[in-house]
Amino acid sequence: MELKAVSAPDGRVGFGTLVAATVLGENEQEADVADEDTKDDGIVLRVQDEITRRSEAIGADYPFRIDASGRAMEFVRPVTAAGNVYLFCLFLSQAFDRTIVPKTLAPKVTDATRNLFQVCSTLAAGGYIQGPAVSFGWPRPDGSQFLKAVKRVYKAFGDGTPVRKPRVAAAKAVKDNGIDIIAWQRTADRLPGTQYLIGQVASGKNWAGKSVVTDRDHFHKYWFTVQPASVAQAAMFMPFGLEPDEPGDGTPYHSVLTDHMQSVSYKFGVLFYRDRITLNLARGLQLIENGETAIERHDELPKIVRWVENYTKRLRAA
Known about the structure:
The protein is α+β, with helices and mostly antiparallel strands. The protein has two domains: 2-77, no CATH class; 111-317, no CATH class. It is 46% helix and 12% strand. It contains ten helices and ten strands. The protein has helices spanning 2-7, 15-24, 33-58, 81-93, 111-129, 146-157, 212-222, 253-268, 274-289, 301-317; strands spanning 12-14, 64-66, 72-75, 133-135, 161-162, 181-184, 196-201, 224-226, 232-237, 270-272. The chain is elongated. It starts with a helix and ends with a helix. The model has no long low-confidence stretch (mean pLDDT 90).
């Protein structure tokens, strides 16, 4: 629905389109017309509930809304900077799904494109933690080698003492030890013991096969003579929406989402999916506007906006 609204000439798509698409995907019609109408109404209500949930979770940066009649979804313009990040995540999510985006219209997802998602994730980490956020994943913006980068980050952090020279059995070209983002909240007294985040970024569907938890523990035990006293919160950043399997037994959708998030949080720590990326990135931008200078890569946000604008034009021209 979101993709269709973006690509529609008037920025609107009726919920009847959703019902029609569902019918096309079914092998048989309902024997009872009344049952079929009830099912169709249920599909529309379910989608409207999800639109409302996203709107309430993200706020004014969510670039869609239900129109006044309740019959259509609208693409809201102008799109804010954080709203463009939502669209960027949406487009990445559907890049390889041929049931929604035909191959001829699929966005070209290169290493440079994936690197832009790391920009989004770094800004979101800063907004979430309300403090400095470092884009630590390889390749780092400054091109620094691993241990040099570790020393720079933890000197700024002020908690933990990295080893002085590479460990003798370590790989000769350690890139990032599986860690893409490091963020922390400043303390007024500049002493250890604060909110601290270690994150991993995954822009592909294989995110579920990853977890920064093991890498986080190895990083602290192996690369520090004195480990940080601050307890690192593990986090996973991915551009997808929540897509839990439903039991089909009438369990309320919110209960399904709650159970799903509990499951993934046990494994990955804090899960930054599309909605949370957008919300916390907006908070990061506000923090930067208020004077925070240590959230890295915020100057690359215009690249994301241009990418989204160009791909949006391509969709609408098709």
